[in-house]
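Record type: monomer structure entry
Structure origin: computed from sequence
Chain ID: A
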Amino acid sequence: MKKIFCILGITFFALSIISGCKGDKGDPGINGADGRDGRDGNANVKVIFFTIFSSNWLVDANGDIYFNRFVSTSILNRSVVDSGLVLVYYDASPNQTRNVWAGLPLTTTTTSASIFELYFYEIGNIQIARRSPTISANNLRITKNYKAVIIPPAAISLLNGVNTNDHDAVMRRINLSE
């Protein structure tokens, strides 16, 4: 008899769990308070900062100086090289509290010399070059801070109508801060 009650009890319990409660669906609960919105950025655009120290510049066979900055190929890949954009800026005010970024290529002319500063890029590499027809390579070797903004093809349309030499305008358009 105990066995029968035990079997009936287990069966009743199992049936009550399987069938569960039935009824109309209740009203939804109230929504929680919205969180504070953060500033939207652009996850696809990458910014790389680097410093070239005076001792890091290399001299080529023509006496011009250059520097190679290797960048991860996952960031500077075939897609960016073929259809994207890489912008390079240097800190034109390294001793100031706020950076003033100037876009490359750049020509600086004084009464005695001209200095040409430009850049090239390929998969996984950005090369900065400084050249002058009147200044020796050793005198062009100075420490400078650079910023590379790497923009993949999907984000290139963000810069429509923007002067890409204007660092602040570019950063505003792609919603990135310094």
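Annotation 1: The longest helix spans residues 2-19.
Annotation 2: The mean pLDDT is 78.
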